Amino acid sequence: MPKLHLLLPLLLLASAGGGGSGRGGVSSVLATDKQTFKEAPKFYNSPACPPIPADDFCSNQSINIAMTLDLHYLRGSMAAILSTLQHSSCPENIRFHFISSLPSLHKTILLSFPYLRCQLHIFAPSPVQGLISTSIRQALDSPLNYARNYLPTLLPTCLTKILYLDSDLILVDDVADLAATPLLGKPLAAPEYCNANFTIYFTPTFWSNPSLSLTFAGRDACYFNTGVMVIDLVRWRVGGYTRRIVEWMELQKRMRIYELGSLPPFLLVFAGEIASVDHRWNQHGLGGDNYRGLCRDLHPGPVSLLHWSGKGKPWARIDSGRPCPLDALWAPYDLLVRENGGIES
Q: Which EC main class describes this enzyme (predicted)?
């Protein structure tokens, strides 16, 4: 586990990785919304890794990761993928499952990661568009932000477990350790934060209505961030959790019971009913709050995953010439090629 004071020099070793790398440099790139990306190095398994055929997406020895692909967050997705592979001891055993409404973004990913073992799953926004209520930040209202609600129906039925990761994060430890989190019979696992003010995620209308507020009766309900989750797909399907989330969203359209996008329905269904993950796997909030995106420090303790949740994204702050100190930890994974021919890496 990396020590906090060693993080920056560790991350600046851009060519070093858990499984090793073969080649890199600028090669196949694709312009996407005036963005071009260089090809990432190829990473190889260490000798102890179990062999898995490249076309096998159902092996219980593989690590399956789901991520959404969005045009505005594509640069973040590239960095997240690179950091995951670089720090993995078995990068060739990782299977990425990309959820997107734009198939062209998958092609862009493959140009930068031509050896990536991945699948594209098309997300049609129409079923969820009518369920979205406006929130405090426009980016939270994107239909793709709700794709995590439908993972068990979007992904192959042969998958029993998936690790869901947001696009505004980087890993600095082996993702296999996170994926191996014991679920203990729960539908999902995530880092919980029980010192947070849980009441602020719901409106006075919700708390003043006993038939609604009693939803949390008998549950040790704590806040958790949905950007890092280990999900038991079998238990989710059997428990009908997608339907439960949708029912809360339908109620929200009739009477406003929460303010913050896709998070509150997850809290309503799962808070107090999840397996816990060590906080080192989601050092979240580095993007600041949802209004101003001010700079924030890390939480106390070890770090395995840094997450720029909140309004401020590291690539945007770097481009504006006003980065926060911790954005320097994200920069080594940036695959963007500058218009003047320079490379961000």
A: transferase
Q: What is the mean pLDDT of residues 186-198?
A: 94
- Provide the residue ranges of all domains of the chain, joining segments of one domain with +: 4-45+58-337
- Is there a contact between 190 and 249 (Cβ–Cβ < 8 Å)? no
Radius of gyration over every alpha carbon of the chain, rounded to an integer in angstroms: 20
Q: For residue 289, what pLDDT is reported?
A: 87
In the predicted structure, residue 140 carries a pLDDT above the cut 90: no
Place of tokens 């042969």: 158
Rounded distance between C-alpha atoms, residue 17 and residue 322, angstroms: 29
Tokens 């989330």: give the residue.
245
Pairing of strands 94-100, 118-122: parallel
8 pLDDT above the threshold of 70: no
Q: Is the pLDDT of residue 299 over 90?
A: no
Strands 63-68 and 94-100: parallel
- Say if residue 149's pLDDT is above 80: yes
Q: Which two tokens stand for residue 211?
A: 């038939």
Q: Where are the beta strands (DSSP E) in the chain?
A: 36-37, 63-68, 94-100, 118-122, 161-165, 169-171, 188-190, 192-193, 223-224, 228-232, 275-276, 305-307, 336-337
Spatial distance between the Cα atoms of 65 and 80, rounded to a whole number of angstroms: 11
pLDDT confidence of residue 282: 96
Dump the DSSP string for 190-259: E-EETTS-GGGGB-HHHHT-HHHHGGGTT----EE-TTEEEEEHHHHHHHTHHHHHHHHHHHHHHS--B-
* CATH T-level topology, domain 4-45+58-337: Spore Coat Polysaccharide Biosynthesis Protein SpsA; Chain A (3.90.550)
d(CA 116, CA 277): 27
- What integer is the mean pLDDT of 56-70? 96
Cβ proximity of 267 and 221 under 8 Å: yes
Q: Is the dihedral of CA 216, 218, 224, 230 positive or negative?
A: negative
